[in-house]
Structures are given as C-alpha cells and as structure tokens.
Amino acid sequence: MCSSITGQSDDFNLLVYPSLLLQGPPGSLNTGSCGRYVLKSTVDKLREEGLLVGLLRLRVFRPLPADELVNALQHLKVVGVLDRAACPGSRGGPLFTDLKAAFYDAFSQGKVKPQTKIVSFLYGLGGREFRPDPV
User: Fold this and answer.
1) CA of 59: how far to CAs of 29, 36, 47, 49, 114, in Å?
2) pLDDT of 70-96, one tens digit each?
3) CATH of domain 12-125
4) Domain boundaries, the chain
5) Are the C-beta atoms of residues 21 and 56 closer than 8 Å to each other?
6) How far apart are CA 55 and CA 44, in angstroms?
7) Most exposed residue of 15, 32, 51, 96, measured as fewest CB within 10 angstroms of its CB?
8) Is the pLDDT of residue 118 over 50?
C-alpha cells in the first residue's frame, strides 16, 4: 500500500547495518539516526583495531520492531543503547526502555535466554555535539 504512495518498496529493512552484528561480536551499539555517522566510523575503526563491536540502527522507532531487534541482538553479551532523549523518572531513554521491555517479553515467553545485558547511554542532550571520543 505504501509503495503506491511513496514509490518505494514495502519490503524495506527495519534494521540498518545488521551485517555488522551477524558475525557474532560480544558487544553492540544500538542507536537512532542522529549519531549513526559518528558511530559507524567509530565501529569501523574499533574493528580494524581488533575489538569485537557492532552497530545496529533502527530505521523506524514506532511501531518498534521488537521481534526483529530481539532476534538480531539475542546472541550478544552486552548491548549499549544510545538515546538522544531523557525520560524524567525513567531508568533510561525511550529506546532503551522499549528494548528492555522487548527482551523481557521474549524471555517471559521462553523465546530467549537471559544472557544479554542491556546498558543505557544518553548523548547530545541540550544540543551538544556528539563526538567519537566518548564512544
């Protein structure tokens, strides 16, 4: 249906750079669109240095592709989620809390084992520039 309006295929990937995760690195960075260029170049550099890191970027946030995210990330030991928004009173940003909920749902349904640690990072708050140094 959307293809008739936009002229683009309906079968686009919800996740970008999944090939960086398919090799089974023990750690990953997951982000929205704002920091993707900094993170992609940083991940490429770290991989050249021999570190096992990966990158996954969401193409859409709502509706959250929860099953695709869990399937792509469940083999990892650690997933760092970078959010550019803070949610007062929450334990992390919106993508972090939704990803934790997706993993909890998958675990409670017996789809995954509780082996992936998910960590929240906030960046660029107040319009601050996002640089490779803190990554």
Assistant:
1) 15, 11, 23, 28, 26
2) 988 898 888 888 888 888 888 888 999
3) 3.40.50.920
4) 12-125
5) yes
6) 9
7) 51
8) yes
